Amino acid sequence: MDFSAEAPKQLTISPEVVGNIAWVRTSYNSVWGLIESSFKRGSVDTEYEITIPANATATVTVKTSRPDAVEINGQRPADAAGVERTTGGNDRIDFVASSGRYRIVAQNPTKKE
Protein backbone atom coordinates (compact mmCIF):
# COMPACT_ATOMS: atom_id res chain seq x y z
CA MET A 1 0.00 0.00 0.00
CA ASP A 2 1.18 3.48 -0.85
CA PHE A 3 0.18 6.45 1.35
CA SER A 4 2.15 9.13 -0.52
CA ALA A 5 -0.73 10.63 -2.49
CA GLU A 6 -2.09 14.14 -2.31
CA ALA A 7 -5.74 14.90 -1.48
CA PRO A 8 -8.09 13.33 -2.22
CA LYS A 9 -6.54 10.52 -0.25
CA GLN A 10 -5.25 7.96 -2.73
CA LEU A 11 -4.09 4.43 -1.90
CA THR A 12 -2.40 1.92 -4.17
CA ILE A 13 -3.37 -1.70 -3.60
CA SER A 14 -1.70 -4.45 -5.66
CA PRO A 15 -2.32 -7.93 -4.26
CA GLU A 16 0.17 -10.53 -5.51
CA VAL A 17 -0.89 -14.14 -5.93
CA VAL A 18 2.42 -16.03 -5.89
CA GLY A 19 3.78 -19.51 -5.36
CA ASN A 20 1.47 -22.04 -3.75
CA ILE A 21 -0.31 -19.55 -1.49
CA ALA A 22 -4.05 -20.31 -1.61
CA TRP A 23 -5.34 -17.39 0.45
CA VAL A 24 -4.26 -14.25 2.25
CA ARG A 25 -6.11 -11.82 4.54
CA THR A 26 -4.58 -8.64 5.89
CA SER A 27 -5.72 -5.34 7.33
CA TYR A 28 -4.17 -2.08 8.41
CA ASN A 29 -5.72 0.51 10.70
CA SER A 30 -4.37 3.65 9.02
CA VAL A 31 -4.92 7.27 9.96
CA TRP A 32 -7.50 7.27 7.14
CA GLY A 33 -9.37 4.27 8.55
CA LEU A 34 -9.35 0.51 8.17
CA ILE A 35 -7.85 -0.84 4.94
CA GLU A 36 -8.49 -4.52 4.20
CA SER A 37 -7.28 -6.80 1.44
CA SER A 38 -7.71 -10.52 0.95
CA PHE A 39 -7.73 -13.13 -1.77
CA LYS A 40 -8.69 -16.76 -2.16
CA ARG A 41 -7.25 -18.55 -5.16
CA GLY A 42 -9.22 -21.28 -6.92
CA SER A 43 -8.13 -23.53 -9.76
CA VAL A 44 -9.34 -21.06 -12.43
CA ASP A 45 -10.24 -17.77 -10.70
CA THR A 46 -9.06 -15.75 -7.73
CA GLU A 47 -11.56 -13.86 -5.58
CA TYR A 48 -10.27 -10.65 -4.00
CA GLU A 49 -11.98 -8.54 -1.33
CA ILE A 50 -10.79 -5.00 -0.75
CA THR A 51 -12.07 -2.36 1.68
CA ILE A 52 -11.19 1.29 1.09
CA PRO A 53 -11.83 3.63 4.04
CA ALA A 54 -14.21 6.60 3.94
CA ASN A 55 -12.98 9.73 2.16
CA ALA A 56 -10.24 7.82 0.34
CA THR A 57 -9.81 6.42 -3.13
CA ALA A 58 -7.56 3.62 -4.30
CA THR A 59 -5.92 2.46 -7.47
CA VAL A 60 -6.24 -1.32 -7.42
CA THR A 61 -4.15 -3.53 -9.71
CA VAL A 62 -5.07 -7.18 -10.25
CA LYS A 63 -3.01 -9.48 -12.45
CA THR A 64 -5.11 -11.74 -14.66
CA SER A 65 -4.89 -13.64 -17.91
CA ARG A 66 -8.31 -12.23 -18.94
CA PRO A 67 -8.71 -8.52 -18.09
CA ASP A 68 -11.87 -8.45 -20.23
CA ALA A 69 -13.55 -11.06 -17.97
CA VAL A 70 -12.96 -9.38 -14.58
CA GLU A 71 -16.03 -8.75 -12.43
CA ILE A 72 -16.31 -6.22 -9.60
CA ASN A 73 -19.25 -6.79 -7.26
CA GLY A 74 -20.78 -9.04 -9.91
CA GLN A 75 -20.57 -6.48 -12.71
CA ARG A 76 -18.23 -5.41 -15.45
CA PRO A 77 -15.73 -2.89 -14.05
CA ALA A 78 -17.16 0.01 -16.09
CA ASP A 79 -20.63 -0.66 -14.61
CA ALA A 80 -19.64 -1.34 -10.98
CA ALA A 81 -20.73 1.23 -8.41
CA GLY A 82 -17.80 3.18 -6.95
CA VAL A 83 -15.41 2.43 -9.81
CA GLU A 84 -14.30 5.73 -11.33
CA ARG A 85 -12.13 4.49 -14.20
CA THR A 86 -10.32 1.42 -15.48
CA THR A 87 -7.17 0.83 -17.49
CA GLY A 88 -4.92 -2.15 -17.96
CA GLY A 89 -2.92 -4.28 -20.27
CA ASN A 90 -2.71 -7.84 -21.51
CA ASP A 91 -2.03 -9.30 -18.07
CA ARG A 92 -3.75 -6.97 -15.58
CA ILE A 93 -6.56 -4.57 -14.82
CA ASP A 94 -6.13 -1.29 -12.94
CA PHE A 95 -9.10 0.57 -11.56
CA VAL A 96 -9.66 3.61 -9.38
CA ALA A 97 -12.39 3.15 -6.78
CA SER A 98 -13.93 5.30 -4.09
CA SER A 99 -14.40 4.22 -0.48
CA GLY A 100 -16.31 0.98 0.05
CA ARG A 101 -16.02 -2.79 -0.13
CA TYR A 102 -15.22 -4.50 -3.42
CA ARG A 103 -15.36 -8.17 -4.42
CA ILE A 104 -13.26 -8.79 -7.52
CA VAL A 105 -13.24 -12.07 -9.45
CA ALA A 106 -10.43 -12.48 -11.98
CA GLN A 107 -9.09 -15.40 -13.94
CA ASN A 108 -5.72 -16.51 -12.59
CA PRO A 109 -2.66 -15.12 -14.36
CA THR A 110 -0.98 -17.35 -16.90
CA LYS A 111 2.09 -18.98 -15.39
CA LYS A 112 5.32 -17.97 -17.07
CA GLU A 113 7.61 -20.96 -17.47
* Average pLDDT metric: 90
- The tally of domains stands at 1
CATH architecture: Sandwich
Unreliable stretches, pLDDT < 50, 5 or more residues? none
**Which structural class do the helices and strands define?**
mainly beta
Total number of beta strands: 7
Percentage of residues in helical conformation? under 10%
Oligomer: single chain
Overall 3D shape: globular
CATH superfamily: Maltose phosphorylase, domain 3
Structural overview:
With 113 residues, this protein is mostly beta strands. The chain has one domain (9-107): Maltose phosphorylase, domain 3 (Sandwich), CATH 2.60.420. Helix content is 0%, strand content 58%. It is built from no helices and seven strands. Strands 1, 2, 3, 4, 5, 6 and 7 form a seven-stranded mixed beta sheet that branches. The N and C termini lie far apart (28 Å).
